[in-house]
């Protein structure tokens, strides 16, 4: 929590229709709050999309945002994932300067962080990494020493972890 603000990961299930994303993001930005990360995709049902967004605010503000989101006509369900245990991932593509003297070290870092080299040129590597925010931050910090020329990333996507009860556990 920074300055009384909580960082929240919200999962918003919506009808997959034109204008729904604009209404959801407009509701948050219209109240003067920033969306720090945004990811949207169809679910297994093509009529439904899942929006994963990260925003920050005081507890009463976050509660108000969630209540207002639930009132939007095309919103099916809103879940504050930070209230429970959840899995998160994001994807980053990064183009890094790869001088001959550093290529082996860069490849080694890529392997350690379970990344993939997607493109090789005489002076750069373009790599792909997936992971939680900390993992992505860590690899970018290490690659910055070689010179990051370009980087793009998806928004964070997340879903709740499955809770296991005793019936779900199988005896070995």
How much of the residues is beta strand, in percent?
A: 35-45%
What is Rg? 20 Å
Q: Gap between N and C termini, in Å?
A: 43 Å
| Residue-averaged pLDDT | 91
Query: What is the general shape?
Result: elongated
List low-confidence stretches: none
Total helical segments: 4
Supply the number of structural domains: 2
CATH topology tier name of the largest domain: Alpha-Beta Plaits
Largest sheet: 5 strands, antiparallel
**CATH level 1 name of the largest domain:** Alpha Beta
* CATH superfamily caption of the largest domain: ACT domain
Please tally the β strands and state the result: 9
Kindly name the structural category.
alpha+beta
Q: Could you state the order of secondary-structure elements as H and E? A: EHEEHEEHEEHEE
- What's the CATH architecture of the largest domain? 2-Layer Sandwich
Instruction: Report helical residue fraction.
Output: 25-40%
């Amino acid at each position: 929590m920074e300055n009384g603000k909580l960082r929240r990961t919200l999962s918003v299930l919506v009808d997959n229709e034109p204008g729904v994303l604009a209404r959801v993001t407009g509701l948050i930005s219209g109240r003067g709050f920033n969306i720090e990360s945004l990811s949207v995709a169809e679910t297994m049902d093509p009529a439904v999309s899942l929006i994963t967004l990260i925003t920050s605010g005081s507890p009463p503000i976050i509660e108000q945002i969630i209540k207002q989101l639930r009132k939007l006509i095309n919103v099916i369900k809103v879940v504050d994932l930070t209230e429970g245990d959840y899995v998160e991932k994001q994807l980053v593509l990064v183009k890094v300067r790869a001088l001959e003297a550093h290529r082996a070290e860069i490849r080694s870092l890529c392997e350690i962080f379970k990344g993939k080299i997607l493109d090789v040129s005489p002076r750069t590597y373009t790599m792909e990494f997936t992971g939680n925010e900390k993992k992505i931050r860590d690899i970018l910090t290490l690659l910055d020493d070689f010179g990051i020329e370009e980087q793009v990333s998806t928004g964070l996507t997340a879903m709740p972890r499955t809770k296991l009860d005793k019936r779900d556990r199988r005896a070995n």
